[in-house]
TrEMBL record:
<dbReference type="InterPro" id="IPR020839">
    <property type="entry name" value="SCD"/>
</dbReference>
<feature type="region of interest" description="Disordered">
    <location>
        <begin position="1"/>
        <end position="80"/>
    </location>
</feature>
<dbReference type="GO" id="GO:0007062">
    <property type="term" value="P:sister chromatid cohesion"/>
</dbReference>
<dbReference type="InterPro" id="IPR013721">
    <property type="entry name" value="STAG"/>
</dbReference>
<dbReference type="InterPro" id="IPR016024">
    <property type="entry name" value="ARM-type_fold"/>
</dbReference>
<dbReference type="Pfam" id="PF08514">
    <property type="entry name" value="STAG"/>
</dbReference>
<feature type="coiled-coil region">
    <location>
        <begin position="279"/>
        <end position="306"/>
    </location>
</feature>
<dbReference type="GO" id="GO:0051301">
    <property type="term" value="P:cell division"/>
</dbReference>
<dbReference type="InterPro" id="IPR056396">
    <property type="entry name" value="HEAT_SCC3-SA"/>
</dbReference>
<keyword id="KW-0539">Nucleus</keyword>
<comment type="subunit">
    <text>Part of the cohesin complex which is composed of a heterodimer between a SMC1 protein (SMC1A or SMC1B) and SMC3, which are attached via their hinge domain, and RAD21 which link them at their heads, and one STAG protein.</text>
</comment>
<dbReference type="GO" id="GO:0000775">
    <property type="term" value="C:chromosome, centromeric region"/>
</dbReference>
<dbReference type="GO" id="GO:0000785">
    <property type="term" value="C:chromatin"/>
</dbReference>
<protein>
    <recommendedName>
        <fullName>Cohesin subunit SA</fullName>
    </recommendedName>
</protein>
<comment type="similarity">
    <text>Belongs to the SCC3 family.</text>
</comment>
<dbReference type="GO" id="GO:0008278">
    <property type="term" value="C:cohesin complex"/>
</dbReference>
<dbReference type="GO" id="GO:0007059">
    <property type="term" value="P:chromosome segregation"/>
</dbReference>
Length: 1072
């Protein structure tokens, strides 16, 4: 409870009450009009410093005392600071800290002469800061224990008047706040979006701290100001209105924080008084008076500190304990943030288990911001070693929860929790470390980098130097041995984690804290060049992977696939560091890499060949011809001996980077490349004759020729391409499937590389290719894809279901995906005609799970090349499928695997239509699809008694899937085009055979609204018998009702219809 006011204060209040009886029943009001509200002040510019009395005065006092107080404060403000004129306490927030101090000083002077009116000004300030536009009425009371007074403390609504009322006790007043009912739905200053909300929060907190700082030596201890203020904030913080509750809770906890500062200054004064008292005790009797004075001063300070601590306890119990679990997360955040500040600043009172438990409980809050405030507060506590003994019980109780928060769904909470654990690593067990160190492989880079700090400080930085000698000659050796020890510890950690192929992520995690170790490339190469008996092959491979990853990190930066949170834009300082690192690695590895290539095994060569592309051409050592020649010679020797795909690909990338024109080693690199390729050409010539006889020879000559064509194009390349394609065409009919597959891949890769490099070297040439495959070769390639990838894969998978496991099936799928991708590249790069893709597009839906992504990407790539030709290819695909279906139905034979049902063709058309996303961009394409479809149905059709409908009329149902992609003007144009083709034919709307036309018309005129239910052609079955209807009579009668309105619309809209007389059988002939 708040202590009672002093007797003097009570008597003064009574006298003031009597003097104001002439007014309305001992009440005084402070009115805030709607026009001059706090919201209007918030819209004023922050930089506006000059205020006039007429535009700034927004508090009109009915009490004479309040009026005089405001006038006196305005006058003193004008005398002290000319640019501050007649402002309210709310307006002073917009005027900066210096003006705030001046106005608060004026308010303190006014408080000394008329404290009731000044307190009313302060009360109105907090009401205005809550965004309230209403009226505050103050009513005097004598005792807050009176039951009649307590019964008035209500908060109610008046729906008729549209007002809310709240009465609460701020002794010696009963305050009544009246405001509109929609205040809670309006943004109040603290939660306003944009910079204003953040600025107001800061200025409001500064006002509270300045108010306490200016009053700490005087009126704060008068037993009147703080009692009223604490009572006001406590009552408003318990309000049901969010604006009052949030604003006054913030003010209350900031008031407690300011009181903590006052208590700290008093504690410092008490300590100084105690020291002076101890000094005075040793002096003579004549100085006893000074000793007594120090004792009295210390006693007074202790009493003031006790009073301050009592105020803090009242605020904590009255506000914090009720609001730290408030429904509003912003209030919970404020409470936790300030609690952490109290514990850190005034640990003698607040750093105890009775207060720490609230921090532990709120770490389970469902809102991430609240959990984050708790973690940040704990960082300040665990970062001070003096606080750790007081945190033992809290640590034992909540350590598991803190560790589990590293897996928090909010990334910032997880990162800050990891930082907390880094600062408090003394409380972690080996099992905890084992769990936390695995976060170096996290997909979030900030979390992984923080875990890297823990790894570096725990394992790598804790390694002791190998020698303690201080001689200058042995200092480098000792440092080298320490680096080796750290590398061994790093290798041991990686091997224990058993997360292979994650070296780049481990290096990225350690880069910020252990960059000096990872950039010590001389130590890496020295360890690799040592006797291989001292390092196992597995550790040697791992050391090379770390070396390559560190080189990549230094050259490209921390951007990794699958890891987010890295800076996408590098600063000038980071770019300079990156350039210096590239120079250092180029200077060292350019001379050492040949030695490593000659020493390591074949498994490691592919990793080492990833280093040269990161060399910096501007390096001074780049002009060292001896080092470059040594590297090229060793590279040639490696490629001559090793034929593994990884080594050959690495060698191709090395020569590609070294042969760039801007590099200093371009000329010797190209000479070495030409010499190497010439040797391969001679070897290829000797093997070409035997490649058709020996099935396994296809592996070698295909790879060699692919590498040769990627490297360079010698003279007479057209003849060589033709010779190679003819031999490969012959191999496509080989009895061994592996030979056929290698021949197919060899042709596709060579022709694709030929087309790609021709465009790269001469982008301005858009002429025909140097060599175009013959029609027979094109058909052979397409037949290989259709037989083995699509149709053949079904039979193969069915026959191997019981004999092969899941791994073999995945390997086969990967093999056939590569085959399909190689064929699609020929179409994308213009080697084959785009119409050759129609056969591939047919299987988009049937093999969607296995090859759908490849076919879909091919559709988009061909559309980027030529959208009109791509649309013709889609039309050709659908028409070929439809013709095959019709032929099978007419023949009545056994179903063929390559023929799809009508439903599947219709679904394929729907999927094709979905690819036309931008209706304006692909307007011509969609119109082309409709025109070609109409011509496909009605072209060369002559109506006879035996054939009253076109043979492919049901194709219009498939074509209707594209109607939704037509723009409204295009729908009218296509409809007119359809009328042109049907004008010469007699159409009977009641006959079922014409239903596809009706449905297609409806889709064009937006009558059917995209309904799919009218599947009037049962094309999944065989062709209809002459006397057998596709639909039952009952079903057709139901369908007729659905189309009656559509048919009438067509007869109304189409002005060129001719209706023949009724023949008596109920049939109406309509001619277009």
């Amino acid at each position: 409870m708040i202590p009672e006011a002093t007797a003097a204060a009570a008597s003064r209040s009574s006298e003031q009450n009597k003097s104001s009886c002439a007014k309305a029943d001992t009440s005084e009001a402070v009115s805030h009009s709607e026009e001059d509200s706090g919201n209007e002040n918030r819209r004023k510019s922050v930089r506006r410093r000059r205020r006039t009395h007429e535009s700034s005065e927004n508090v009109k006092c009915k009490s004479p005392k309040a009026s005089c107080s405001g006038t006196r404060r305005a006058g003193r403000g004008h005398g002290k600071q000319k640019h501050v004129e007649a402002v309210t306490l709310f307006e002073v927030i917009t005027m900066g800290r210096s003006a705030m101090q001046a106005v608060i000083d004026d308010w303190i002077e006014a408080y000394g002469s008329d404290r009731d009116s000044s307190l009313l000004d302060l009360i109105s300030f907090f009401i205005q800061c809550s965004g309230c536009k209403g009226v505050v009425t103050a009513e005097m009371c004598q005792s807050k224990e009176d039951s009649e007074v307590m019964s008035k403390m209500v908060e109610e609504l008046d729906e008729t008047a549209g007002l809310q009322y709240k009465k609460f006790l701020a002794f010696p007043w009963i305050l009544t706040v009246t405001w509109p009912m929609d205040t809670d739905s309006v943004e109040y200053p603290l939660v306003q979006s944009g910079p204003y909300g953040r600025w107001f929060h800061s200025e409001f907190c500064d006002f509270v701290s300045v108010l306490v700082a200016q009053c700490q030596h005087g009126i704060i201890f008068d037993g009147y100001l703080m009692n009223t203020l604490i009572s006001l904030l406590t009552e408003l913080s318990n309000s049901c209105v969010r604006a009052f509750r949030h604003t006054c809770t913030l003010a209350a906890v900031k008031l407690l924080s300011s009181l903590v500062g006052v208590a700290l200054s008093l504690s410092a004064g008490i300590e100084n008084s105690q020291k002076l008292y101890e000094v005075q005790k040793t002096k003579t009797m004549r100085q006893k008076s000074a000793q007594q004075l120090e004792k009295v001063q210390r006693k007074i300070a202790e009493e003031k500190r006790a009073e301050i601590e009592s105020m803090m306890d009242i605020i904590f119990k009255g506000v914090f304990l009720k609001r730290y679990r408030d429904v509003l997360p912003e209030i919970r955040c404020v409470c936790m943030e300030e609690l952490g500040l109290w514990m850190k600043l005034y640990s003698s009172v607040f750093l105890s288990d009775s207060y720490l438990k609230y921090m532990g409980w709120m770490m389970h809050d469902k809102v991430p911001d609240v959990r984050l405030k708790c973690v940040l507060a704990l960082q300040g506590l665990y970062g001070d070693p003096l606080f750790l003994p007081k945190l033992d019980l809290f640590t034992s109780r909540f350590k598991d929860r803190i560790i589990s928060m590293t897996l928090d769904k909010d990334s910032e909470v997880a990162v800050q929790t990891m930082k907390l654990l880094v600062t408090s690593d003394d409380v972690l067990t080996p099992e905890d470390y084992k769990h936390l160190l695995q976060f170096v492989y996290s997909s979030q880079r900030p979390l992984a980098a923080t875990a890297g700090e823990l790894l570096f400080s725990r394992l790598l930085n804790a390694v002791a130097p190998a020698s303690d000698t201080q001689d200058g000659s042995n200092e480098d050796e000792a440092c080298k041995q320490q680096t080796f020890a750290r590398l061994k510890a790093l290798l041991h950690f990686y091997q224990e984690s058993e997360l292979h192929n994650h070296v780049v992520y481990l290096v990225d995690s350690l880069w910020d804290c252990g960059g000096a170790l990872l950039k010590d490339w001389p130590s890496f190469t020295s360890a690799l060049l040592q006797d291989s008996s001292s390092c196992s092959p597995g550790r040697e491979m791992l050391l090379v992977e770390i070396l390559v990853a560190s080189v990549r990190q230094a050259s490209e930066g921390p951007v990794l696939a699958g890891r987010s949170g890295a800076k996408k834009v590098m600063s000038a300082r980071d770019k300079k560091i990156q350039n210096d690192d590239c120079l250092k690695l180029t200077e060292h590895l350019l001379t050492v890499l040949p030695k490593l290539l000659s020493k390591v095994s074949s498994d490691i060569l592919a990793y080492l060949m990833r280093i040269p592309p990161y060399f910096l051409p501007e390096c001074l050592h780049a002009e060292n011809t001896q080092a470059v020649s040594s590297l090229l010679t060793e590279l040639e020797a490696v490629l001559d001996v090793h034929s593994g795909p990884a080594v050959l690909e690495g060698g191709a990338r090395v020569f590609l980077s070294l042969c760039r024109e801007e590099t200093a080693w371009c000329s010797p690199a190209r000479a070495a490349r030409d010499s190497l390729v010439q040797r391969w050409v001679d070897r290829l010539t000797a093997l070409l004759g035997e490649s058709l006889k020996v099935s396994t020879a296809g592996f070698m000559w295909t790879q060699l020729l692919c590498v040769r064509l990627v490297f360079m194009y010698p003279e007479k390349k057209e003849l060589q391409l033709r010779l190679f394609c003819e031999r490969s065409h012959h191999c496509l009919s080989h009895g061994d499937l592996s030979v056929r597959q290698q021949a197919f891949l060899g042709v596709c890769d060579v022709l694709t590389a030929h087309s790609y490099q021709l465009r790269v070297w001469d982008p301005t040439s858009f002429g025909p290719l140097l060599y175009t495959p013959s029609p027979k070769l094109q058909r052979a390639l397409l037949n290989f894809v259709c037989v083995h990838v699509f149709v053949g894969s079904d039979y193969d998978s069915q026959s191997r279901d019981h004999s092969e496991g899941k791994v073999e099936k995945l390997e086969d799928l990967h093999k056939w995906r590569n085959v399909l991708a190689a064929y699609c590249k020929l179409i994308i790069h213009g080697v084959l005609e785009m119409s050759m893709a129609a056969e591939v597009f047919m299987y988009y839906m049937k093999y969607y799970n296995d090859f759908g992504d490849i076919i879909k990407e091919t559709v988009y790539r061909t559309r980027q090349m030529d959208k009109i030709e791509s649309a013709r290819t889609l039309v050709l695909c659908l028409q070929q499928l439809f013709v095959r279906l019709k032929q099978e139905q007419e023949s009545g034979g056994r179903p063929h695997p390559g023929v799809q049902t009508f439903t599947s063709i219709k679904e394929l058309a729907r999927r094709f239509a979905l690819t036309f996303g931008d209706l304006v961009k692909f307007r011509e394409c969609v119109v082309l699809v409709h025109r070609n479809g109409i011509e496909f149905v009605f072209q060369d059709f002559t109506q006879t008694p035996d054939s009253s409908t076109p043979l492919y009329l049901s194709y219009l149902t498939i074509l209707s899937e594209f109607s939704s992609k037509l723009l409204r003007p295009d729908k009218k144009a296509v409809f007119s085009y359809l009328q042109k083709h049907t004008a010469e034919h007699i159409i009977d709307l009641r006959e079922e055979c014409w239903q596809p036309l009706i449905y297609y018309r409806a889709s064009l005129l937006a009558v059917a609204e995209g309904e799919d239910a009218i599947s009037y052609v049962s094309s999944d079955r065989k062709a209809n018998l002459p006397n057998r209807l596709p639909f039952s009579k009952q079903k057709w009668e139901g369908r007729r009702a659905e189309f009656s309105q559509a048919q009438s619309d067509f007869l109304t809209i189409t002005s060129c219809f001719r209706c023949e007389p009724d023949d008596g059988d109920g049939t109406v002939e309509v001619e277009l």
